[in-house]
Structures are given as structure tokens and as C-alpha cells.
Amino acid sequence: MNSNMLLKGTLQTIILKLLEGNNQMYGYEITQKVKELTAGEIMLTEGALYPALHKMEAEGFLETFTQIVDGRARKYYKLTEEGGIQVNNKLDEARAFIDQLQNILNLKPATK
């Protein structure tokens, strides 16, 4: 599945939802979790992930902290209070979009 174009519009939602369920994560961990949850069908690249993380941090949705793990600094991302609110907003937007997409593509069974 070539999901790069579809992924671009949902990347922020995916990241926020993962952080909501995992409290804190580092970048590589996020990429691996997406790969695991999609059985390898969606692969996040660093070139897509890190700009999205930095943008969400600048918008106040994420906070960061660094820990030393195995002698190396690892930057963790965590939702702020505003980020927690945005998770619900983004999920509502995604659901509404999916509903409309299903209507347009006739993916829903006809209601009688």
C-alpha cells in the first residue's frame, strides 16, 4: 500500500493518539509502534516524523525531556494538557472525514 500521501494528512493524529496511550515515547519508538500496529504497511520516515514532532512541540501540544539510555541521550515526547485536548479534536476530525470518504466512495452499505 502506498500510503505516503494519505499519511501526511493524518500524521499528527497518529502521533497524538500513540502518545495518549503510551504516556511518553521517543521518535524511533513511535516509528516502530506504527510499523507494528499496521503489520509493516505504514512506515514512518524520520523525514516525516521529526518535523511533525517539532511542529507539535512549537504549537504547545507536546513537551520533551532527555534521558541518557545506554550512554546516549534519548529525547522523549509527552502530551501537554493542550495536546490531550487535541487528541480528541483530531480523532473527531478523522472520524468525520472517514465518514464522508465512505459516502463519496460508496463504501457504506445502503441504509434501508
TrEMBL record:
Residues 15-84 form the Transcription regulator PadR N-terminal domain. InterPro entries: Metal_resp_DNA-bind_regulator (IPR052509), Tscrpt_reg_PadR_N (IPR005149), WH-like_DNA-bd_sf (IPR036388), WH_DNA-bd_sf (IPR036390). Keywords: DNA-binding. GO terms for molecular function: DNA binding. Pfam families: PadR. PANTHER family: PADR-FAMILY TRANSCRIPTIONAL REGULATOR (PTHR33169), TRANSCRIPTIONAL REGULATOR RV3488 (PTHR33169:SF14). This is DNA-binding PadR family transcriptional regulator. It comes from Mucilaginibacter auburnensis. The lineage of its organism: Bacteria, Pseudomonadati, Bacteroidota, Sphingobacteriia, Sphingobacteriales.
